[in-house]
Here is the input.
Amino acid sequence: MNNIFAVAGVVIKELYRRKDFYVLFIVTILICLVMASVNIFNDAKIVRYLKEICLLLVWISSLVIAITTTSRQIPAERENRTLLPLLAKPLTRSQLVLGKFLGCWLACGLTLLCFYVFFGALSASREHHWPLLNYFQAAVLHWFMLGVVVAMTLLGSLVFAASSSNSTICFVVVGSILFVARHLDQVALTLREPLRTVIYSIYFAIPHLELFDVRDLVIHSWPLISWLYFSLALLYALGYVAVFLTAACLVFRRKAVN
Amino acid sequence: MTPILQTQKLRVEYRSRELRQGTKIALHGLDLEVCAGEVFGFLGPNGAGKTTTMNVLLGFVPPTSGSASLFGIDVRQPISRQRIGYLPELTYYYKFLTAEELLRFYGKIFGLTRAEMDKRIPELLKLVELEHAANRPIKSYSKGMQQRAGLAQALINNPDLLVLDEPTSGLDPLGRMKVREIIQRLKNDGKTVFFSSHELGEVESVCDRVAIVHQGELKAVGSVSEVTGRHTSLEKAFLEIIGFQSSPTL
Ligand SMILES: Nc1ncnc2c1ncn2[C@@H]1O[C@H](COP(=O)(O)OP(=O)(O)OP(=O)(O)O)[C@@H](O)[C@H]1O
Ligand SMILES: [Mg+2]
Here is the structure.
């Protein structure tokens, strides 16, 4: 366990030393600017629209941060040959994978925390209304969704050699899950038999990341999700994380590193 | 004496699409034994299979056939690496960390306590003469300084067996002498050192035993005087063993 935390610690240290968090600042400033213009239009509809833009920004940048940082981790260790002295220590390859996952996921969590706190504070100060639990549910679901994305990207970085192609693939996969996946079952109904089963199996096999998209909870201050469903969703995400990480460990165990 | 580093009929084939023949046999049934307390020099021309042997010993590359063990534990088990220190041949350490942080990170993986590290890390930095640069990121180090940082990380767990791949490459004459001194000191402390080198003079002066590999096969093994045999120097013996004839045109 200590080994896993040590690896995760280095991942986080790298992120802030490499100044990757600049993205975070830029997005935060953008959020600021958008929210500041709320004052100009004092119309509830436009305010809601601006909030939507901000959250979309948060979603996109969180995915960018999650995928780009994760897909770089292990390929960079290989290229810089830092993997050799590391694996020469009594550290198992699974521990390395888990440590990388934990580091990236925690980094995503920190980023999200910044985004949501900032966004929440700004919008609440305008509307004089503090739906804390709504923010909590939205942020935690978002974070677990990123967990699935990080685990998937980590698996990808071990399967595909080049880290740039891996991040492109991950963006495409995540994007299509978010936009298309919910309609796949209806698509399947319109198709004929062999294809129908294929599309149905895809529909059931992929992680439905779009379920975690509960932006309306903070935009429209919708009523809270029942805590039962909330925890089921978290378990669902953890299940996929476990599957992806197990696959990553298995792939990595067989690889020669040199 | 019991060997603490052993390979038996070790064979390694690299398969890769980039190779024209499809597979490249890097090691051909290598049998090697290193006993406790020895300083063992591992020699051979470029591409002989020295680094490959070390890669197998550290579990980076699985052997195609044959076996390897450290302290009697098969190298596939990570616990076999608890008591070893390893210096890779070409390495860049995490550029964004300082030498001190790097040592702390590796120390944690070995399960050292904070107190142990507080004592050990300054000692090591002093040993490799990096105290003045301890709090600078490694990306600001020269090549030789990186090599020294590498040597320090290989010693962090006070290992009983050191596996060093060309430890003196990239060091100035003074640095080389320091490394020789360090090896000598480790030997006096009863440690075992297994290292590869192209500096035959250096090998002659510090090694108890040497082995010469060529094209993945063990060509000679024994004490320096045994391997030198009837030749005037280890270098001459080495050249003959690897089948070098001086070309008359040069
Ligand atoms: N990843 C690899 N894929 C294919 N062939 C490889 C790979 N690594 C090494 N080889 C081949 O295996 C042989 C042994 O290489 P190795 O690196 O062990 O040599 P070495 O004795 O360490 O040489 P040097 O003194 O140059 O460091 C070489 O012929 C090399 O071309
Ligand atoms: Mg080599």
Observations:
- The radius of gyration of chain A is 20 Å.
- The interface with chain B takes residues 2-3, 6, 9-10, 13-14, 17-18, 80-82, 84-92, 256-258 of chain A (CB under 8 Å).
